[in-house]
Specification:
Layout lengths: L3 E4 L1 H8 L3 H17 L8 E3 L7 E7 L2 E11 L2 E10 L6 H17 L3
Parallel strand pairs: 1-5
Antiparallel strand pairs: 2-3, 3-4, 4-5
């Protein structure tokens, strides 16, 4: 089963700012989301508790760790809102809030 993954401009800007090898790894992980959707297992994705549907794609290259936030939009569509380079053990709360804000805007505007 094939899923659609939409990468919003805020996420594209983040991805474009990263080194080429990390970008390749991110796009490979996005391809896995496109292929497996809700069946994509840990360590590639994780639901974020208390966020009403926000999840994170987890990408690691050597010691560098990136997180891309996404949510299920409808039917077979996933939307990647934003991302950041993880530097601490816990997921950055400000980044989660930012992703939730983008998610609520998308849901209000009813993604085209």
């Amino acid at each position: 089963m094939e899923f659609t993954v939409k990468i919003l401009p805020s996420a594209n800007k983040f991805i474009d700012s990263l080194p080429e090898k990390m970008q390749s790894k991110i796009y490979r992980t996005v391809d896995l989301l496109r292929e497996f959707g809700y069946r994509l297992p840990d360590p590639y994705c994780k639901a974020l508790k208390g966020t009403l549907g926000l999840k994170e794609l987890r990408v690691k290259l050597a010691t560098d760790i990136c997180r891309l936030f996404y949510f299920h939009y409808k039917d077979k569509v996933y939307v990647i809102t934003s991302g950041y380079v993880k530097k601490r053990d816990k997921t950055d709360r400000q980044e989660i809030e930012r992703a939730l804000h983008i998610m609520s805007q998308v849901l209000k505007e009813k993604l085209q």
